[in-house]
User: What shape does this take?
Amino acid sequence: MSKAETLQESEIDNRSADSPTPYLGRSVRIVGPHVNVDMNQSPHPKNARGELGKPLFNWYRNTVSRDPLTRVSAPNHFADRRQFLTNIINRSTNGKVNPRRVAVDDPAAMTRHIKAVALYMGADVVGVAKAHPAFLYASGGGRYVQDGTAKDEYQNYSPEELAHKFPYIIQAATAWDYNKLQAHRHHIGDAAYHVSQMKGVLVLKALEGYIKELGYTALRGVVTPQAAGVAGGIGELGRNGLVINKNFGARVHMPDPIMTDLPLVADEPVDIGVEDFCKICRKCANTCPTNSIPFGDKVVHNGIEKYKINWLTCYKLRPYVHDHWGSCLTCAVVCPFTKPNVWWHTMTVSLLHACPYFARPSLVRFLKWIDDRYWGVVRNNRVRWLGYDSGVKPGEQACTVAGCNASHEGKGQAVVGQAGYYAPLKENTNRFVKRDV
Amino acid sequence: VAFQFPWSKKTSHRDDPYWDFFINTTPADLGNTVTEMLRKAPEGNVFPAKTELHTPEITTRHVKGMAEYFGAAMTGIAKLAADDPTNPEGFPFAVVCAIEAEYDPRKSPGIGGQVPVQNGLFITFVLSAWIRELGFRATVAPQPADEKLAAQAGLGTLSSEGRLVTPQFGVKVYVANPIRTDLPLAPDG
Assistant: This one.
């Protein structure tokens, strides 16, 4: 079967009775015919083939980070690939499905169990989505696992067949550390992002192995993570293109989910007011250093109504800032939903959830005013962590560890004030980037 | 659903019919366990350029801070004897990390019972890789005297059966394989 035929089939099936158009909450809607995403056309594979130009290719393939922690925690910037845990885990050979299957009498009890297992292993959020062909990568493209491989005997199945045979998708996510995340566009923020990403890879691999031990199949690299997150009730899709969770805001990973035939009960999409907030707030669009986030309304892209970020301009900045940081994270940090997971945050999100739709715009304006007033329009806190200090200007070197009397030759000492310096500053980039009107 | 105080962080698994399978059933295929993948992983190279360090006391603080960030409940530094036959490479220090273990991993072979081991391997893998990237030697090899080293690093005291007892968790603690290193550190205890 050629690829074109498969795609047409999936279009037809989306509207058929077998798989009705799924409800994804208020933030995303499937409105037209959707062509399944070919994973080979996603940013990293495109870049790995050199289709995005030399600077990006060299950044992705040939750049070793100057920062020791980045060398062990960030994809593709290691000096020795054996030091990067994700490589070890994702390239390991998989075990076999246990022939002695554990009987599941009550799918609800099994759902509670799988969620408890994921949390016990270290996940912060778990959701179960009902599989739908539209969530899957196009058939014929293979599986997609970053920094690794996934192969299974179902590679030739069409999305419809897969969704029928494996009706559930488990998405487990880890959250980024709030305090370190404040140093976005800095190695400290990278530590928040990359270390929890490795932990997430570990948890999902362990969960995949456990499902196989229960006697059921677990597929990886099949499902679009964002779709699984939104459908599984982990959060709503924000203007910044990130899934926003009620406890952690935008600071959760959307790792590669598990598709399985384990009998479960699917969660419903949630409503935490992201839809109403994103219409008004625009903090991420204002602070994005590359203006990749739209200021305007939602658009219909590939049959899906959502805010469409410009991934290429977001991606293109990376080689130029590689000395200072690896992952930008600015849109996640400034998002008013991104707060410590404490009672006042829970209370505010519950308030938004309970608020009737007509009153939400005024509540959102009030909450955004509070956020601008107390957390700042632009986040530039100075963060210090284990010898890293975001108060040291990019390109300068200084030891600011209290009580350190080691001789650091040629390093500055004094750093005053509580401002963090995050390269590049917005005013240095926005004049070069045309806004997408 | 079992009764639970809303502020209690521990979840009860008493009404979960599959929990015993998770904790106690030995995996049919070890290839399904992350612990096996990490145990088999080869060690990487030491980065050729040494990172400029702070004083040993501050480096110790940073190593402990890093271990804590990776998930260790307690971290200690033990001084190793240079003429010890179990230490042929002459490493001066061992970094010992301990993790809270609700179930004893020696008695619970299930994937759930091995979760402390899994977390311990995560910590020691990333921490030792980080030390090697700093430009110093670091190796994680299972040693019979893990708990003795942990006591020596000031994490707790040894019981009469040779188990580590800590002030925080009692005996419900798992000692990860120590990282032996030549990174200049300040030993505890």
